[in-house]
Amino acid sequence: MAARWTLSLLLSACLFWPACLALTPPAELPQPHNLPPSLGSNSSDGSLSLDLPMALRVFSVDYNHVQAPFEIVLWIMLASLAKLGFHWSGRVPAVVPESCLLIMVGLLVGGVIYGVRHSAPPTLSADAFFLFLLPPIVLDAGYFLPGKLFFENLGTILWYAVLGTLWNMLGIGLSLYGVCLLAPSSLGDISLLHCLLFGSLIAAVDPVAVLSVFQEMHVNDQLHILVFGESLLNDAVTVVLYKLFESFLRLPSVSGLDVLLGGCRVLVVGLGGLFIGLFFGLVAALTSRFTSRAQVIAPLFVFLYSYLSYLTSEMLHLSGIMAIVTCAVTMKQYVEANVSERSKTSIQYFLKMWSSVSETLIFVFLGVSTIQDVHMWSWPFVCSTLLLCLIWRATGVLLLTAVVNKLRRNTVTFRDQFIIAYGGLRGAICFSLVFLIDDFPKKRLFITTTIVVILFTVFVQGMTIKPLVELLDVKRKKRALPTVSEEIHSRLIDHLLAGIEDVVGYWGQHYWKDKFEQFNKKYLRRFLIREDHQAPSSILRVYQELERRDQRGDEEAPPLVDPRSHSRPLLPEEMDSIRRILSRNLQNFNNKQTPAYSRHTLHQDATMDRTRKPLHRHRSLGERYTFNTQGEDGEFSGSRRGRAGLSRSHTVCSMSPRPVLQDSSVPAATSQTRGLVDPKSSAVRKEQISPHHQAPDGRTPKKQLSFVLESEKQQ
Predict the structure, then answer these.
(1) Does domain 126-472 have CATH number 1.20.120.430?
(2) CB 426 within 8 A of CB 457
(3) Which of 465, 475, 398, 387 is nearest to 425 (CA)?
(4) By the number of CB atoms within 10 A of the CB, which of 55, 173, 273, 629 ranks highest?
(5) What is the DSSP string of 234-297?
């Protein structure tokens, strides 16, 4: 393991050494004293001229021409090698999160740069972070967002993201202002608005840090979606509040009207980003409908429209995070229905690769940017901030969960609440925002405090949250992919709950989900999806989705074949044949004469087709007529079974004896066992049974249930 780490660091140093030299400003480069004779003087006063060489150069170096892209490639290569070495380091990934290791690599690289140049290493600018590194991460999170879980827990997520962020911001900001009043000598020049501004940025829970830790632990779906959804929307709320307090600081005075307008601005920024993302998502879905003749560029529209929605929102000073998440969620189902399987695979792998590189660069630059000359230390302010972040986060989660549990069917347990409170990791969002603060005397103190909070949450909380999950025995996620049967039963339960809510007049989440599915099927899918890609069966769609998951090679899926077996793998043509057979059989199953159940067309079918043939049901063993014939030798010679018809209209139940016929040649047997009779005919049937048809040995004839139509009963 030590050899692997040494090799990884040597490769990183070799690749990074030109970048270190390239970061040296031009004024510090050594000036040449003696020029070669080939560069003679071309002026009368003996001054040197480098424009006209006297001879042809065989080899030359022009680093300034490729400096920017060359350094970018070196940084990406350094981050990728660090990540590669991390996954080849034995037991280290089981103990140390990946984000911690990348920050350590950044600290090492920053120390090398500082030792070589004797000055601060380059920092990650806020524009580079918000315009180039953050969008791929948010796009990947929104595109692969589990839609069903997210919308089922949307109320709780918004409750945590909006009210929880306001709670943390006000609690931390007001408490820090109290600390500043208690220490007027060193912190007396920090105003209330500055404390609230710092509280708004330090309350940002970074989805990058949260995802990197929670994906390694495989926590249960409800806990994962609550923490992930809250951190994702928390960033949008944090950026809006930060810009609001930044605008307040630039005003000469803040009045009540300004506060009211600020609240309206928060709503406009959030809803504006939502509608922009919805618009670009629908446009991307519509564009993908016409890519059948150019499937090569189909994945490109996913990235272009998503990034365009983010840039448009930033241009209009709206929430870019809300825009790109909404765009990804909106266009996913329509785009995947229009593009080919290879295009889907390209989209998925490129998004994962893009977001992984961005996350790696962010954590490396967090470590590099820590080595600075601009630090300012204050024990009361730093320690108070660290303690207040933990206290207000924990109290906010407990209070908000106590309220929301009264409205939820699946309550959030105390163990999950502890993990939600403990999982509030800070990251690059607050680090980038703190550098955007306008210059004032305590800006360096804010930067130092932010770095300390980030390092503490990522290293201490990030490294101890996994042992705490195991110690508290928090429910883990089911690692096996759902089967077709589970998907069908899950949809059946959703339909039943929607029907129950409709009957009782309760407009719950299943009611609105069912209404949207009806609107989506009737209008949106017909308009946004090509006709040749309309799935003919919901069962077939489930099968295709599970097949795509299997082809992606999901890491969480268990192996379908025992690795110890030595059976021959299936050839590609055999797999294609199996897929065709399954698809054809599932489609033929959907095309049966028996109409499928649909809550929206149930009453129409019942009124339109009253003369159709009654549905037959399989009767139990006690309800079947058995005809036994015994010869002189007592051997069994034959049997016959009759089946009674069952209509879909309302029926009543009556008791009638079951005749046991001993002669199989009775011609009226089939007529007696096929139709349903009224009460009068049941009485006549008793009389028509001859004595030798009665049960032997004087036993009481067995009873059976016969269903009689109410319409026949009234005649």
Answers:
(1) no
(2) yes
(3) 465
(4) 273
(5) HHHHHHHHHHHHHHHHTSS---HHHHHHHHHHHHHHHHHHHHHHHHHHHHHHHHHTT-TT-GGG
Short-list 80, 74, 104, CA closest to 360: 80
Task: Express as a percent the part of the chain with pLDDT over 70.
Answer: 66
Q: Which of the four pLDDT bands, split at 50, 70 and 90, describes residue 301?
A: very high
Range 536-561 average pLDDT: 57
User: Residue 41, SS3?
Assistant: strand
- DSSP classification of residue 130: I
List, in order, residues 6 or more apart from 625 with CB less than 8 Å away.
Answer: 640, 641, 642, 658, 659, 661, 669, 672, 673
**What burial letters (b/e) apply to 198-225, b meaning 16+ CB within 10 Å?**
bbbbbbbbbbbbbbbbbeebebeebbbb
Question: Which tokens in the block code for residue 143?
Answer: 């595109």
pLDDT band of 662, cuts 50, 70, 90: very low
DSSP H or E run through 518 = helix 509-519
Residues 200-230: tens digit of each pLDDT = 999 988 766 666 667 767 788 888 889 888 8
Domain boundaries, the chain: 126-472, 481-533
Please state, in angstroms and rounded to a whole number, the distance separating the CA atoms of residues 571 and 211.
37
pLDDT recorded at residue 636 = 40
Angle between helices 298-315 and 341-370 (to 10 degrees): 40
SS3 476: strand
CB atoms within 10 A of CB 475: 15
Predicted TM-score of the model (pTM): 0.69
Q: What is the DSSP letter of 621?
A: G
